[in-house]
Q: What sequence folds into this?
């Protein structure tokens, strides 16, 4: 399955335009996104490819300085013309790379749109109906149209436009979650599923347990059973602001979450020691050993990463 060339070209034009610091036509951009569900997917695919194109261009060596030549007759090109032409060529190369890359980075085996983030990376996905998904680091999400998705691992914050006739359905860890006009966060790590609601409501397993979560409520599945708990609505999705919290988590679980959130590799074999707390990720990125006094643990260098152990 391939991208419609006309939609891809329009998505590329919008992607290049929105990158400009002085871009102001956000109303026009929003209208284009809402005009067709395929537009949002194409735009995200193009942005994904542009990021890869940027990486390719960044890796290219700087051109050798040209030899000094004899003066040439004056021409009509204005000062700075060469620098502008070089910048234009960079954009043209990036655009051509996007055309090639979007043909292979959009669709998964079943035709769904696949999104993956590297550890430490985040990504905003705009859906065609005005809803959005913010994907945390080290996460994988499959979109099945604009009203269904599957979180295969990691964490995501969903801001969903409610449609009673066509509710948004998320599958995560084998569970179905149905929105009721909602802002909610979902984290899937192994068999642990954590759902927290900031606005609206979510119905977990509507055909079975039918657990309704309202603002300030969360449900955590561990060992195959859900446990309900209260949560500060303002803290739902706090990873977007550079902070993660955990409750009675083992050091092994904390290490895995830190790796996913920061992009720095942390490991621990300790599954017995359990801690609760909150960590500002900027501090950990700047100095991984800052975890020591924060959590009262030992943090030691191990190859290209760090190990965490109880004191």
A:
């Amino acid at each position: 399955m391939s991208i419609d060339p006309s939609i891809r070209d329009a998505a590329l034009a919008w992607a290049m335009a929105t990158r400009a610091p002085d871009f102001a036509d956000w109303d026009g951009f929003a209208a284009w996104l809402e005009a067709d569900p395929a537009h949002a997917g194409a735009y995200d695919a193009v942005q994904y490819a542009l990021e890869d194109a940027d990486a390719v261009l960044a890796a290219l060596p700087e051109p050798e300085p040209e030899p000094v030549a004899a003066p040439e007759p004056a021409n009509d090109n204005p000062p700075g013309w060469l620098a502008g032409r070089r910048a234009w060529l960079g954009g043209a190369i990036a655009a051509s790379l996007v055309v090639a890359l979007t043909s292979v980075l959009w669709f998964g085996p079943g035709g769904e749109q696949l999104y993956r983030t590297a550890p430490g990376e985040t990504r905003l996905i705009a859906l065609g109906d005005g809803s959005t998904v913010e994907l945390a680091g080290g996460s994988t999400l499959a979109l099945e149209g604009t009203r269904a998705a599957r979180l295969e691992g990691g964490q995501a914050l969903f801001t969903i436009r409610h449609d009673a006739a066509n509710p948004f359905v998320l599958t995560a860890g084998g569970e179905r979650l149905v929105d009721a006009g909602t802002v909610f966060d979902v984290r899937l790590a192994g068999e642990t599923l954590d759902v927290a609601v900031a606005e609206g409501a979510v119905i977990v397993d509507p055909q079975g347990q039918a657990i309704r979560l309202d603002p300030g409520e969360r449900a955590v599945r561990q060992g195959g059973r859900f446990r309900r708990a209260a949560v500060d609505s303002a803290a739902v999705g706090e990873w977007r602001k550079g902070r993660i919290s955990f409750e009675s988590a083992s050091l092994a679980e904390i290490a895995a979450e830190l790796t996913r959130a920061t992009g720095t590799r942390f490991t621990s074999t300790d599954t017995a020691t359990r801690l609760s707390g909150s960590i500002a990720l900027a501090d950990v990125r700047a100095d991984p050993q800052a975890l020591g006094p924060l959590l009262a643990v030992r943090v030691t260098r191990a190859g290209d990463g760090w190990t965490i152990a109880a004191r």
Summary: Residues 113-234 form a domain with the Jelly Rolls fold (CATH 2.60.120.1440). Residues 75-90, 98-107 have pLDDT under 50 and may be disordered. The radius of gyration is 23 Å. The longest helix spans residues 37-59.
